[in-house]
């Protein structure tokens, strides 16, 4: 969870509900997101249930790079752009 929407390479993430510039894999449905839906996940870095990628990631807005991982820092519960701490 969090609001990070930029990859490790500095690329902007594509909205999970968008088909442009990349068509999302059909296995990522609303119930595979911790937010409850693809719409609620906006363009944030996520690791949907069923993903074979070991960390948070997103489809990028770069037409030449389909997806990239995100570097999400661990931080306090009050920070917005981090991994939720328990």
Features:
two-stranded antiparallel ribbon, little secondary structure, Plasminogen Kringle 4, single chain, 86 residues, 0% helix, 7% strand, globular
Provide a descriptive summary of the structure in words.
The chain has strands at residues 57-59, 67-69. The protein has a two-stranded antiparallel ribbon with strand order 1-2. It is 0% helix and 7% strand. Strand 1 (57-59) and strand 2 (67-69) form a beta hairpin. The chain is largely without helices or strands and 86 residues long. The mean pLDDT is 89.
Brief synopsis:
It contains no helices and 2 strands.
End-to-end separation: 12 Å
Nearest-angstrom radius of gyration?
A: 12 Å
* Envelope shape: globular
In CATH, the architecture is Beta Barrel
Task: Please tell me the overall pLDDT.
Answer: 89
Q: Give the low-pLDDT segments.
A: none
CATH superfamily: Plasminogen Kringle 4
Q: How does the SSE layout of this entry go?
A:
Layout: E1 57-59, E2 67-69
Antiparallel strand pairs: 1-2
């Amino acid at each position: 969870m969090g609001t990070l929407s930029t990859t490790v390479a500095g690329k902007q993430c594509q909205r999970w509900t968008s088909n442009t510039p990349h068509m999302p894999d059909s296995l990522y449905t609303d119930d595979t997101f911790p937010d409850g839906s693809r719409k609620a996940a906006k363009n944030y870095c996520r690791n949907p249930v069923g993903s074979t990628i070991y960390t948070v990631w997103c489809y990028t807005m770069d037409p030449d790079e389909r997806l990239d991982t995100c570097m999400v820092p661990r931080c306090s519960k009050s920070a917005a752009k981090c991994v939720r701490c328990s």
